[in-house]
Amino acid sequence: MPSTAMSDVREYIWVLYGIITILVILGVSLLYTPVAELSLHIHAPVTLATPLDLMIPLIPPVIIIYWYVFYSFIFFSYVYLSFVQREFRNAMLISYVVVSLVAYAIYLIFPVLGPERIVTGTDFFSEQVRLLYQTDVQVNCFPSLHGSMSLLSAYALWRAKREYGYVSWPIAIAVMVSTLFVRQHWIADQILATIITLPIAYLFFDRFRYTRVEEPMTEPRQWQVIASLIIAVIVMVLYVYSFGL
Fold first, then answer.
1. pTM of the prediction?
2. What is the CA radius of gyration of the chain?
3. Nearest by Cα to 138 from 164, 121, 168, 118
4. Distance between CA atoms of 94 and 116, rounded to whole angstroms?
5. Where exactly are the structural domains of the chain?
């Protein structure tokens, strides 16, 4: 009887590992604002505006991609890799932590001030942008974590199943572009995000084999993909609208 119970525990231990993965990601993400506040006490922020950056207009409807598409996308990748197609769960987690810590270190050493925040419209999209400006810090720009996390999610999903790349890579690029048109980032922020994220992802997904989860892999079922997407959208809505509380 005890051996049977132990066998049952081992069979479902992946659930615990998945929960731990999500909690670690959440914990690391909570360092974002404290790092921004600390960086302002260490160095005066600089700006990385180029003439091209200054030509980019604010386009409020792009907030849909910046907020709603982005968070649905990354939450889906976290849930899917943690609980469904788990082969690359550890690689995703380690990559996330390393990319985040590298970004935080740069923020502390070299804080960058984002574009000027001016919203004149009163429509729904403009109000969403205004809410973004009120709740997000104006530093922690270089590199862009929106860019880094989008690229990491795209890479992870692409490695999990090549067909996902047809969707994940365009979404990642769209998110990176959206950061420019909601006036949250400079072009240099996205360039550095790419330089940092892709080599780290390649290292842990493709070179370090010990990051692979050693358990029987099964082909994900359609309902599991749909369930992951539904969960991601629900969490996205709760997360985004928590800013308005």
1. 0.93
2. 19
3. 118
4. 34
5. 13-242
